[in-house]
Amino acid sequence: MADIDKLVVTVNCEECIGDGVCCDDAPNTFKMNDDGCAEVLSGSTDDRDTIVGAAKNCPTDAINVKDKETGEQLAP
Question: CA-to-CA distance for 9 and 51, rounded, in angstroms?
Fold first, then answer.
């Protein structure tokens, strides 16, 4: 099972400013959509630490990451 399948990753597009740091940090997990908001890609091959790190680097804390099994908030 891929790490992305063990996480709940969401992006709040009202808070996202389209900085793109998440796409740089975890390019297999995030991409910018046509509206300038990050979106989560299915089938990511990035590991858990990479995904959580990218979310924590978001300048507006627009990316929320939780552990799917425990519900633990991992980012922001």
Answer: 9
The secondary structure of the chain, three-state, reads CCHHHHEEEEECCCCCCCCCHHHHHCCCCEEECCCCCEEECCCCCCCHHHHHHHHHCCCCCCEEEEECCCCCEEEC
Q: What's the token pair of residue 13?
A: 């597009």
Domains of the chain (ranges; CATH) run 3-69 (3.30.70.20)
Q: In this structure, what are the phi and psi dihedrals at residue 45, rounded to the nearest 5 degrees?
A: -110, 5
Full-prediction pTM beyond 0.90?
Answer: yes
pLDDT in tens, 7-34: 999 999 999 999 999 999 999 999 999 9
